[in-house]
Design brief:
alpha+beta, two-stranded antiparallel ribbon, 96 residues
């Protein structure tokens, strides 16, 4: 059972954002600036560390838009609804 506490979700989200920013910098070191290769590396590493599977639905650098679908996330599994603010933060930080 997950206990609801004020600030808990926001804290996890912001920790995830900072981690996502760091991940992105590391991914660029591995993949270079090629967007397709970068998305493949990011998706593979996301899965390999056990966060789940990501699917990049729309990615446009000129429009500064990134739409991602995450599924099979291991955090908060069995809750019956999307709830991982940490994963949301990682994805937002990476995209930013």
């Amino acid at each position: 059972m997950i206990l609801r506490r004020p600030g808990y979700e926001a804290f996890l989200y912001h920790v995830g954002v900072e981690l996502g920013r760091k991940y992105f910098r590391d991914h660029v070191k591995l993949a270079g600036s090629d967007a397709d290769k970068l998305l493949k590396v990011a998706g593979a590493l996301f899965r390999l560390v056990g966060f789940g599977v990501v699917e990049f639905l729309d990615f446009d650098l000129e429009e500064e838009r990134c739409v991602v679908r995450a599924f099979k996330c291991v955090l908060f599994r069995g809750l019956g609804r999307p709830a991982s603010h940490f994963i949301r933060g990682i994805l937002a930080g990476s995209a930013s």
